[in-house]
Structures are given as C-alpha cells and as structure tokens.
Amino acid sequence: MLGAMSDLGTLSVIFDLDGTLVDSEPNYYEASRQTLAAHGVPGFTWADHETYVGISTRESVRIWRERYGLRASVPELLAETNRRYLDLARTRTRAYPEMRAFVELLAARKVPMAVASGSSPEAIEAALAGTGLAAHLRTAVSADEVPHGKPAPDVFLEAARRLGTPPADCVVLEDAAPGAAAAHAAGMRCIALPYVPTQADAPEFATASLLLRGGQADFRARSAYAWLCDGVR
Length: 233
Known about the structure:
This protein is an alpha/beta fold. It has nine helices and six strands; from the N terminus they run E-H-H-H-H-H-E-H-E-H-E-H-E-E-H. Helix 6 (121-131) links the parallel strand 2 and strand 3. Helix 5 (97-108) packs across helix 9 (221-232).
C-alpha cells in the first residue's frame, strides 16, 4: 500500500516536458514540417523529426539553417516554429495518463516538483495549462532562460536552484538521450523512458539510474513511486 511507504524526505522530482509528461512531439513535428515547407524544404518526415527529440527548438532551427541552407535567421525560424506549435499545443496536447497519476501522487505527498524543458516558456505554459498539469507544476525552466540547452545540465541545475534542492537530492524523468546526459552531468539520478524505444541502447541512457526500455509503455506511477521510496530508505 502506498500509505505504508516511507516519506521521500528532501527529494525533489524534475520532469522533462515533451515526450515525458505530455505527448507533444506530434505537435512539434507538424510545426517543424510546416515551417520547413514554407522555406522550401518539403518532405520532412517523422523519422527526420525523431533525430531532433530531446534537442531544444532553438538548437533545432540552428541545425536546419545550416543543413538546408535556409536564408531566414535563427530568431525568425524560431518565432515561426513556436507560433505554429503554440496554435497546436493549446488544443491538441495530452498528458500521458500514468505521468498525470504520478504527478498527482507526488503532489498529494507534497514532493517538490519542477519542469525543465528545451521548449520556450510560452510552449511550456501552453502545454501545462492545456493539460491541467499547471495546477501541480508551478516551477518551470526553459532552455531559453539558461546559457546552454541539453545535453548541458543548465536547465536541471536551474530547476534545482529554484526548488531549493541540492542536485544530489533531485531525480529527473527524461525520454531523450540528451536529457539523460544532462541529468547525469547535473549529478542527478534519472528515470529514463526513451520516447523512441529503439534508441534505448544509446550510451547516454546507460547513465540512468532506472531505464525503462519500453518507454511510456513500461511506466507505472505506483512502481515509480516505490522506486523513489526504496532510494531514500
């Protein structure tokens, strides 16, 4: 029974957003596809998009500009992509059911939580508001607010700072290899659930404290909570 489990003490939990808390990757794919098509790059596929999972939108458009020889500036491409994404995010984003249950379980036990994402502040706000998770996740850090995005540890370290929790007392939930690498660099434990299960053998995931190779299909709120409790006993 959960009621018999030990208190999590000083532990804090930091969530990646896209692909971890919410199934927003289809929205990012569609926004990316539309932006690239508008700049003369047709045929951007879902397989192409998967190579950008875990990378900030700003870094993604930098790569596009170099890879496809786009004339538009990085700020222009970023603004255009974010505008398209926000239009989709406000109405089409859904939270993963077991993740919602996990957030609610932690909130009931007053465990400090934060979101640390490569998305823009506006995109984070839209996703959390649209899914109702904003009621429990009031601390959020965007890669736009720190010097470097994932795989650098900056967003996770800033989230820990805002929560007032030492990095060693933070556990990160991540779906992407760059995020797992960032958690490791921040000195935090990581529950990794690969958005693309075939990428579970990526070396970055080997640094995770708990690797759920099947991704969301393997995640259960009660099991994750039990794992956290075991770690503080």
